[in-house]
Write a structure and sequence with these properties.
Largest sheet of chain A: 7 strands, mixed
Largest interface: A-B, 21 and 17 residues
Order of helices and strands of chain B: EEEEEEEEEE
Number of helices of chain A: 0
Shape of chain A: globular
Order of helices and strands of chain A: EEEEEEEEEEE
Strand content of chain B: over 45%
Oligomer: heterodimer
Distance between the termini of chain B: 40 Å
Number of strands of chain B: 10
Strand order of the largest sheet of chain B: 2-10-9-4-5-6
Helix content of chain A: under 10%
Shape of chain B: globular
Structural class of chain B: mainly beta
Structural class of chain A: mainly beta
Number of strands of chain A: 11
Largest sheet of chain B: 6 strands, mixed
Chain lengths: ~110, ~110
């Protein structure tokens, strides 16, 4: 199974900051990584797929990059509506595996 | 508008069974692989099972293999998850999703407890 090591587990940012979350796969996942936002009591929402492709409706302040085993997800100009947990998902191989999540809080 | 609506959750005793359903609308259900993902209370997301468009290929995580069965009825645009021999560690919110994981249902809670 491919392990996805996501960090940090939590993040505290001020409005307008740029924050970055990383996911490292235990093997090459060929850019097959997606990023999700989940707010309390809600289903996850896909923001980015295939490393850096923004899903329709995703604000341009969100971005993704990476290759091989190492990937990152960033939010520039953090807004209050970005308070949520964020997860990466590798879909290169079954079993599909998620990162452990990052909880974003506003200072 | 794509909609996925789960049902069938509830409280069940360990060792018993439960069957979840997911009614799909707003897209051609038979054209999409589908999946179930779960989330234990206060925990992260965990892929459970996937099924191909025609239902001929199914995939499971090891911890549910032999206990859970994913199936679909394309005529009814409905996805199912038959859960047998339930354990306390199966307690979670279960989401159905298109296998692209672009659309998710709202989730249904399953609690396994005596």
């Amino acid at each position: 199974d491919i392990q996805m090591t996501q960090s940090p587990p939590s993040l505290s940012a001020s409005l307008g900051d740029k924050v970055t979350i990383t996911c490292q796969a235990s093997q090459n996942i060929n850019k097959y990584i997606a990023w999700y936002q989940q707010k309390p009591g809600k289903a996850p929402r896909q923001l980015i797929r295939y490393t850096s492709t923004l899903v329709s409706g995703t604000p341009s302040r969100f971005s993704g990059s990476g290759s091989g085993r190492d990937y990152s997800f960033s939010i520039s100009n953090v807004e209050s509506e970005d308070i949520a947990s964020y997860y990466c998902l590798q879909y290169d191989n079954l079993p599909l595996t998620f990162g452990s999540g990052t909880k974003l809080e506003i200072k | 508008e794509v909609q996925l609506v789960e049902s069938g959750g509830g409280l069940v005793q360990p060792g018993r069974s439960l069957k979840l359903s997911c009614a799909a609308s707003g897209f051609t259900f038979s054209n999409y692989d589908m999946a179930w993902v779960r989330q234990a209370p206060t925990k992260g997301l965990e892929w459970v099972a996937s099924i191909s468009t025609g239902g001929g290929n199914t995939y499971y995580r090891d911890s549910v293999k032999g206990r859970f069965t994913i199936s679909r009825d394309n005529a009814k645009s409905t996805l199912y998850l038959q859960m047998d021999s339930l354990r306390s560690e199966d307690t979670a919110t279960y989401y159905c999703a298109r296998h692209d994981f672009d659309y998710w249902g709202q989730g249904v809670m399953v609690t396994v407890s005596s």
